[in-house]
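FAQ: What does the model actually see?

It sees only this:
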Amino acid sequence: MTTCSADPVRQLEELIAERVGPQRYKVWFKNATRFSFADGFVEVAVPNQFIGGWIENHFSNTIRRAAQEVAGTPMEVAFGIDAELAKSLRKKQPDSQVDYVANNPERVARYHKRRGTPPPGPELRGRFDDFVVGDSNRLAYSTALAVARQPATQFNPLFIHGACGLGKTHLLHAICNHLKEHRPDLTCVCVTGEDFTNQFVYAVKSGERDAFRHRYRPVDVLGIDDIHFLANKRATQEEFLHTFNAIAGQGKQVLMASDAHPKLIGHLSESLVTRFVSGMVVKIDPPEKALRIDILKKRMQHMNRDIPDPVIEYVAETFSSNVRELDGALLKLIALADVSGEPLTVALAERAIRDLVQHTLPVLHLSNIEAIVSIYFGLTPADLHTSRKTRTIALSRGIVMHLARKYTNMSYPEIGRHMGNKNHSTVILANRRSARLISEEQIVRWMTPGGEKEAPIRQLMEDLESQLSQSNGSA
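And it is asked to produce this:
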């Protein structure tokens, strides 16, 4: 076993590296994360939402257990965006991340075939009691609660969508946890779109399709988080369509969550889109100020800390996009107060989150643009950061750069640095090309698994801008 150093953060890094393996640590953690401890929490700072989401989905339990071992007390994991970390990423690291994501089903299939077991599902941590309700998420909460109390009656299927970090996964997990406690007679399975894909690959490779279908098709409630992961995967989509039909045909409940509306998930078959919108499609908006204050107070209660109202209001006014940035700001504030020994005041809060205000807000906005555009074209945000120049990636990257200049206050160099350390001249040329295509009302083309696809760029941009507007709660 690796001998850990005296520094708790270094100890944590060494334990994580030991437990995830050198390759995964190099791809996802080295140069891409920064850890800090504060009052029963370990904060994981990441350069963008894609890396944060991947680490959260795949390594949260590993981080939690390692942090508990280092601290000697139960720990929770919180994620925050630190744009400065983008400068630390190796130039080819985004390429490595895309390769890892693309090959992950094969890796998982081989790993579990050697062990003779199917991949495990996620830990279901979300509960209704922990979900803070406000105007922006009240409909989604009420609908989810109704499904939990009476599944497969009024809202079937249920499709929840919204930007990252707003509580979609929390509600899916809450439904399943409620059913397990109050309806133990029902079989409830909740996995991510990636889990479903990996397990399907495992079944195909091992010749166990019947076992795979027996696991999913007889269930009473099936929840699929990040359903947009099925985009660009034709065989998996076909299998899920049959799974959906089998479950719905028996009058059972299907739950789904995605960063985008079903109609804005690129390369998703029309048959799936039709079924997804046949039930209840509900959106979670970014939290309004009152909800942000309530969320911060809930976190304070959980951490057993007392923070003056003016400080809470300052943090709530400063960060508005999602819950993760609130968590990150609060943890950084508490960590600074503990280290400095100073009282929790607005002045201390301004010092604690000054760099987050300066660097994080525009990058979070750009991350929202990246998420929407990449889902539309069936890519991942990391694809846009790579050095690759396929027709689809080049078109998507140019559109992101154009929208970033239009909707953020980021300069050309800032956009370029965030998107894989591209030269500012690349951003300028991309903006000019996009503006020319729009003014000339050109038809643009890109590749999909089913072949070439085309659309008027003006209509494409209107669809993307509408989704971006909705994701920011302005429409």
